[in-house]
From TrEMBL:
The keyword Transmembrane applies. This is Acetylcholine receptor subunit alpha. Gene3D superfamilies: Neurotransmitter-gated ion-channel ligand-binding domain (2.70.170.10), Neurotransmitter-gated ion-channel transmembrane domain (1.20.58.390). Belongs to the ligand-gated ion channel (TC 1.A.9) family. Residues 235-316 form the Neurotransmitter-gated ion-channel transmembrane domain. The chain crosses the membrane at residues 228-252, 259-280, 286-315, 397-417. Residues 1-22 form the signal peptide. It is a multi-pass membrane protein. Residues 355-376 are annotated as: Disordered. It is found in: Membrane. InterPro entries: Neur_chan_lig-bd, Neur_chan_lig-bd_sf, Neur_channel, Neuro-gated_channel_TM_sf, Neuro_actylchol_rec, Neurotrans-gated_channel_TM, Neurotransmitter_ion_chnl_CS. GO terms for molecular function: extracellular ligand-gated monoatomic ion channel activity; transmembrane signaling receptor activity.
Amino acid sequence: MFVFVTLAAMLGVTNWSSRCYGQTYNQTKCLYENLINDQAYHTEIRPLIDQDMVMDVGVSFNLISIVEVNDVSQSFSTNGFLTLSWLDEYGGQRRLHPLPKKIWRPRVLILNTLQDRDIFDDDKAPVYVNYNGSTTWSPGSLFPASCELKMIEFPFDRHTCTIQLISMMYSNKELQFVAASPLIERTFYSDNGEWDLKEASVYVSIVSSGNTNFSLVQLQFTIERKPMFLLLSVFLPVIFLSFLDLFVFVIPVESGMKINYGITVLLALSTFMSMVSTMIPKSSLAMAYVVFYLFAVFILSMLTVIESIGIVCLYNFHPGLTDLKDQQDEKAVLEGDRVRSVSELMNSCHSKAMSNDDEFQKSTRDGPNETQTVKRVESQTSRNVLRYRLYVIGHRIDLVSLCVFTIVWLSMTFAVFSRISYL
């Protein structure tokens, strides 16, 4: 009996001595050798004697040059040297930091991704194993996910995108996700230059695949576009250019710049819209209202040019001019070289007839030419009257067109942007 008790006591002491507790460096190393590996030196253990203390690491940076500042991607790149300094010690430990590949991890996949579903391929991500067995793994990666974007309210659009994470290896009876907090932590969040994050939350649900149910984690983000840049650099210039196009009806026809002004504004608007097209979303399923607005503004500008051409043609219309001689005679009359009134010609002929027979005969011989001149003057007078009427008609068309096109432009502008703001 005594031998049996002695042997049992010795086995108990041996078994007790094989246990390791992570309070000092040697005991923490013992844990790694028994639980993880059997190496002489462990780079995963902090070199502190008292493992409850904080490791102080000094950091300094020696800047060499600034490589790039990209305002589009909101990135900043530099060239330099990073210096880290600390003090090596040895001591106790209550938490282990093994490599992720040496412990069990749930294989999490992105369900609604457009790229690789298994994105956690980093075997250097931090892992925290506490003395009571609780383990924390914090892998970092990019999370590309598909999201249905409805761009109809662009540039005042608001979207809700979801990243769906699932573990396909285990059913919900084997592995169940639990949301530690309903909100996504944003302690280290950096604001985006284009999008404003409104809400960020975590949901856990069940998804079925055949006869098997899986636990699904949904990371939901509600984002809203920051429209100020697009308004100042894109839409307001287009609105101002289209507004300037209305002044083509104010320019008088006599200046000769009516058509030139309209074509210049149309070309400027088309050139600017070609640059704008690279900045607006390209989607034929639900096109933005501003796309229709830009197209309508372009059509409106084109109509103003066409109407200006018609008004100029109406002003320069010469009815009754069939040959070059008539055009030359009209030009001479307009310049005052051969302009005479009908009354002056008749009085001149009557005075010459009363003076003597020779002068009367001479005037009779010249009568056909003077009669022809009188007819041309009368024809020119009627044409001038018609041209004046056409000028008045063109001027009134300008006034009516100015009012109509202004009303149409204001209606389109307020309708589109009020609709977008309402949505």
